[in-house]
Specification:
About 35% of the residues lie in helices and about 25% in strands. The chain is α/β, with parallel strands linked by helices and about 450 residues long. The protein folds into three domains: about 170 residues, NAD(P)-binding Rossmann-like Domain (Rossmann fold); about 160 residues, Dihydrodipicolinate Reductase, domain 2, CATH 3.30.360.10; about 80 residues, Alpha-Beta Plaits (2-Layer Sandwich), CATH 3.30.70. A hairpin with a 4-residue loop joins β8 and β9. α13 runs antiparallel to α14. About 45% of the residues are buried.
């Protein structure tokens, strides 16, 4: 007697842009492999896209096409809704309504999760469905699944991530090719690595969205996105990258999350890393996340952080995970956020003024006797000791760059010292401050 074929899990895809098209291509190409891995087929029943009339091709034969995502949300046969349109609305409403209808959902929407994640995860918990979002951070790098499962037995002590490829490419060009920021950005735009409006990337907001997600999975705490200090790379100058190189450092835009026990510290800003560190060697559009666990120690996740194929790979992994749950009827076997919903505890955020770091400081100072002793004196008065000094020759206008690297100090002490220095007659412009990571935890 011939055995019956297992029933497929039915999918609905909303958004056929870069990532959606990549997902469709991967699904169609690897249908047999996916069925072998799952033990049952995946059936893409419908695709919704507001420009669906311009889409064509034999790949779409047999798939219902519509400009209205509500057709997928309202379809009782669709079991997994895959949202790949981005933005806040209508993505938020689509996902919430899908969850209310007891559908599982997949998204790669980092901004939505960072700003409205608690609302979505609360709805998932109440409806006993599933929400997966591996593609929201790091493209094809399996960092979120690793935090939830693979290294879930560790208390996460810290995360340091290069999690925005656009900014990393710009800083790489500035470092190796000595381009100024404007030229490096223009090059990134010409190659398609930066948007026409690159603000989300170069101002650090994209990295902050991803860091909020990493933080809540690492520490089991809701993260208030507005409480994350964010500084981008617009103001970075080639002169500071070159001075950093003299000191043995490479500049990167980092997302940083640390567990201080009494509080958690999340921030995004440019930082100098020791040139021998693995993160310092991550160049171009690549991403990397260094996770330090109490038992595991440091481990590095590295790969392409964006693009159609890497992100589609992550989305497919989510679809497979949720399809297995549907097929077995075993939802929330691994909680979406890696912690039991009732065990997630709010944690106070470390204020930026309370962080401890080493600092790179560049002063444009008058080239006259007593200036260096004044600078070191003010720093000393605020309890800040000096590790090294670089002073160059006279510049146009009579001021010279004086670079001081400090030993570990609090941000509050540094800022208080700089307020005094920047209002003095010894300097000709505001001090450039860049934090140094890698030695201090």
């Amino acid at each position: 007697m011939k055995s019956l074929s297992p029933s497929p899990v039915v999918l609905g895809l909303i958004g056929l842009g870069t990532v959606g098209s990549g997902f469709l291509k991967l699904l169609l190409k690897e249908q047999k492999l996916l069925e072998r891995r799952l033990g049952f087929p995946l059936h893409l029943k419908s695709i919704a896209d507001r420009r669906i009339g311009s889409k064509s091709g034999s790949d779409l034969n047999g798939i219902h096409l519509t400009p209205d995502p509500n057709e997928i949300v309202e379809d009782p046969e669709v079991q997994i809704v895959i949202e790949l349109i981005g933005g806040i609305e209508p993505a938020r409403s689509i996902l919430l309504e899908s969850i209310r209808k007891r559908k599982s959902v997949v998204t790669a929407n980092k901004a939505l999760l960072a700003l409205h994640g608690e609302e979505l995860f609360s709805a998932v918990h109440a409806s006993k469905t599933d929400l997966a979002f591996e593609g929201a951070v790091g493209g094809g790098i399996p960092i979120l699944r690793s935090l939830r499962e693979g290294i879930g037995g560790n208390r996460i002590l810290s995360i340091k991530g290069i999690i925005n490829g656009t900014s990393n490419y710009i800083l790489t060009r500035m470092n190796y090719d000595h381009l100024d920021f404007a030229s490096a950005l223009e090059d990134a735009q010409a190659l398609g690595y930066a948007e026409a409006d690159p603000s989300l990337d170069i101002d650090g907001m994209d990295a902050a969205h991803k860091l909020a997600i990493l933080g809540t999975l690492s520490f089991g705490a809701p993260i208030e996105f507005s409480a994350i200090p964010v500084q981008g790379i617009r103001e970075i100058q080639t002169i500071d990258i070159e001075f950093g190189r003299e000191l043995g450092y490479v500049l990167k835009l980092l997302g940083i999350a640390k567990d201080h026990g009494h509080s958690i510290d999340l921030r995004v800003h440019p930082a100098f890393l020791p040139e021998e560190s693995l993160l310092a060697k991550v160049d171009g559009v690549f991403n990397a996340v260094e996770v330090t666990g109490d038992a595991l120690g440091p481990v590095l996740f590295y790969g392409r952080g964006a693009g159609a194929d890497p992100t589609a790979t992550a989305v497919m992994g989510d679809v497979m995970e949720l399809a297995r749950a549907i097929h077995t009827g075993c939802f929330h076997q691994v909680p979406p956020l890696g912690f039991s919903w009732n065990e997630r505890k709010p944690r106070p955020m470390t204020g930026l003024a309370d962080i401890r770091s080493e600092y790179y400081l560049r002063f444009m100072a008058h080239d006259q006797p007593g200036t260096l002793s004044y600078l070191s004196g003010v720093l000393g008065d605020h309890g800040i000791s000096i590790e090294s000094v670089i002073q160059k020759g006279r510049q146009k206008g009579g001021s010279v760059p004086v670079v001081i690297q400090t030993h570990t100090a609090t941000e509050a002490s540094i800022q208080a010292a700089l307020r005094a220095i920047d209002h003095s007659a010894h300097v000709t412009e505001p001090t450039v401050l860049i934090r140094v990571e890698g030695k201090t935890e």
